[in-house]
Amino acid sequence: MEKISFTLNGKEVEVTEPDRPLIYALRNDCNVKSVRYGCGLEQCGCCVVLINGSKQYACTLPTHAVANKSVETVEGLSTSEEIHPIQQAFLDEQAGQCGYCLSGMIMATKGLLARNSKPTRAEIVDALDNHLCRCGAHSRIIRAVQRASDLMS
Amino acid sequence: MSEPKLPPSLAANPLLSRWIAFLPDKTARIASGKVEIGQGIVTALRQIAAEELDLDLQKVTLASGDTEIGPDENYTTSSLSIMASGAAIRAIASEARSLLMERAALRLNCSPEDLKVSNGAFLQNGEATDIDYWDVASEIDWQRNATASKAPKASNTYKIVGKNIPRDDLPKKVNGGGFIHDRSETGMLHARMLRQPSPSAQLSFLDQEAIKRAAAGEIQIIQKRNFIAFVAEEEWLVEKAARAASNHVTWTGTSNIPRGAADARKLPGKAAVEHFYGDPEPISPTIGKSLRVSVTRPYVAHASIGPSVALARWKDSKLDIWSHGQGMHPLRRNLALALNIDEASIHARHSDGPGCYGHNGADDAALDAAIIALEIPNTWIRMQWQREEEFAFEPVGPAMQVDIEAVLDANGNPIDWKTDIWSPVHVQRPGAAGVVMLGAQSLGAVAPGGDPADPPPERGYGGPRNAFPAYKVGQTHIHHHLIREPAVRTSALRGLGALPNVCAIERMMDLAALEAGKDPVEYRLSLLNDDRARSVLQRTSELCDWSKRGTSGTGKGLGIAYSRYKNIAAMAGVAVAVTVEEEIRLEQIWAVADAGLAINPDGILNQLEGGCVQGASWALKEEVKIEGAGIISTDWDSYPILRFSEIPEINVELISRPDDVSLGVGECTVGPTAAAIMNAVAHALGEPILDMPLTRERVMASILKN
Q: In this complex, which of B169, B234, B610 lies closest to A137 when CB atoms are compared?
């Protein structure tokens, strides 16, 4: 059976069936449940992960596309000792209602802050505009990204 | 002296043991039939219990939505969780504390008045004792009926209620867990559906071999009459099967709805059950200046961000269910009925799902999973709907048209108010007339017959929800034309008929103010008797600098609206500033609410804000498109919702009323936000747009017309 390997949150992993979208390999084989199925069409952003540091939709990306690359998900953010400042900021602002969209937004925030540590409101909105939130927590989510930026500087 | 009245949830489930248990790990477990749907209810109910029990919040857990543990509180709906479950839990906790005190007093040979409680430990005349709640709890018979005879604490002594306690469930949810979607059971099989395209459709041919080839791996196909499901160990295989399946099936008798037939403006004239509320209509017309408004909104969707999921297992003649539906006890009843099995053999448990704003696909997904579980016993079945299935088969909020004719006296005050509401039914929970769950329908179940029925007046109406204005408008006549046949399945969606009704009323208020030559806020205040309502509206107008509102027709608009949800829940005022060029841009939203005693103020602000965004999204963007077999807007491109770049600054304020009873907040800002937008757009253009959504096309048409 064909296998590929990649780095998942800093650890080397190996999965089979490299033709299926990455989301199934991550959720079902690697037990990485933060990667959420929303639409399967790159329209909602729930499944966004970082691949070599840049945002990608795990719902459509074939698993083989990440061979020998680095995949980052929410599970890789906090350690048992310390919560990651982005997650802390989302909790501080209670930035969510149902919370289903947050994994993708948190990873988008990580990608954003890595390239722009002090984003303006407009830059935050731009970075999150392909992420949907149905409950209307947008204002809090924007504040959470601003807070994360402060916490990390 | 009459017996104290039990809160309704408690009257329906009087046994104390249904609500409270003192567990060996020195925690108190409260139970509720209400469930977390993204509104923070689990945290707020724990706050109420911990307060009455004098326990630290950490010592109070909440078992929510479990048919074997908790009370039957029907569905989590209508902004009622704090008002219903909160009231019951406050009474139960207060009674439990008193029973425990009496028991401890017996042990300590003192009077209960000598005792105090500190985090569950008893103090006697201020000194520590060696007993606590858990020492005496086992000596109390909890299998007794609540009496609600103990007065709960005075609100001015509250230490936990009224605090901004962070939500319990969020830490998991920002860290990769917390959803029903994440549940994984040993040996679990994944499942997907191929849905019967419309209720009338009959399966003519299913090319199972072609679907198996498309899956390119081992899958099982379950086909019973018009129920078709794919099951496999590997999720991707059933996903592939489901995606391919529509190319390998033939149906006959599928609906063929012509384009435009489901438009809201086509509702008048359709067959309807006629209901009349309010004052009888006068025999001769009331004399005065007559004004008319006619507002529509199309069919709108829940459009939850994630698809419905359920887990089911049939083992040892027992059905285990995990679901994110709004009520586990009703789900158990409905599954028993649909599967023809004993209700007692079903254990239904709630697990958090993606945002829920009413009766969505969750219950149907649970039945889908259960039907398969009965076919493949002893194995957990995980059913997940596809995105397009969620859009196409969730029950949607009905299209509506609301016409108001108001007659003004010589001073410009309304003396007669007549409303016509055309709307298909707003609540079609399983068991109602003409309603079966999707899976049951596919298996050939026949719905109980009868007229469609909205919630009755005492439960806040359906189509006529909020049709009675909060203002003094004179004789009021509401004519509800309850349309018999919706274009597609409809059911409860946040606010039911409130949004279009509030839009129509608030539009009429602006028109009538203009006619009376008064400022719209002043005019409304002159017709509002209730001081709390007046405070809400006044504060809203202050926040938005209403007094500096410019002239109309400049492309910049400021609109305001007020409503009290269901005329009994929270009061909300909303103001919206817009710029209208080719399309409508929201510049700012201000919202003010009075929710009585706020259990968790920040949680309320979050709900109010969310209601503003969802109301704005419905008003500006959303329309379920219906044609052919049914719903054809089945992705986020064809069903757009408000995005980050369209979200204005939102200022939300809560008026503190700690001495007044808590009022439900989940739905109160939705209607006023849409109404304030409609008024702001009318102010900006000098001409209203009365058909929602207020799209670019409609703005252009309005500009070109003038």
A: B610
Q: Which long-range contacts (CB under 8 A, 24 or more apart) does B520-524 make?
A: B520/B560, B520/B679, B521/B546, B521/B560, B523/B412, B524/B471, B524/B560, B524/B562
Say whether pLDDT at B2 is over 70. Answer: no
Interface confidence (ipTM) of the complex: 0.98
The CATH 3.30.365.10 domain(s) of chain B lie at: 8-172, 180-254+303-393, 400-705
In this complex, which of B303, B352, B647 lies closest to A138 when CB atoms are compared?
A: B647
Inter-chain residue contact A90 with B170, CB threshold 8 Å: yes
For residue B568, the Cα-to-chain-centroid distance in whole angstroms is 16
Q: How far is B234 from chain A (nearest CA, A)?
A: 8
Residue of B nearest to A101 (CA): B305
Distance separating alpha carbons of residues B60 and B63, to the nearest angstrom:
10
What letter does residue B649 receive in the DSSP assignment?
A: E
**Residue range B630-654: average pLDDT?**
98
Backbone angles phi, psi at B13, to 5 degrees: -135, 70
CA–CA separation, B334 vs B339, rounded Å?
A: 9
Q: What mean pLDDT comes out for the span A112-133?
A: 98
Chain B residues within 8 A of A99 when measuring between CB atoms: 38, 169-170, 173-174, 178-179
Number of H helices, E strands in chain A: 5, 5
CATH code of B180-254+303-393, in short, is 3.30.365.10
B150 to each of B4, B96, B119, B143, B229, how far by Cα in Å?
A: 9, 9, 20, 18, 54
CATH topology of domain B400-705: Aldehyde Oxidoreductase; domain 4 (3.30.365)
Q: What pLDDT was estimated at residue B100?
A: 97
Please state at what angle helix B41-53 crosses helix B87-108, rounded to 10 degrees: 30
pLDDT in tens, B38-47: 889 999 999 9
Q: Which CATH superfamily is domain A3-76 in?
A: Beta-grasp domain (3.10.20.30)
A85-152 homologous superfamily: [2Fe-2S]-binding domain (1.10.150.120)
Q: Where are the beta strands (DSSP E) in B125-219?
A: 127-132, 189-194, 202-206
Which residues on chain B are in Cβ contact (under 8 Å) with A106? Answer: 174
CB atoms within 10 A of CB B553: 14
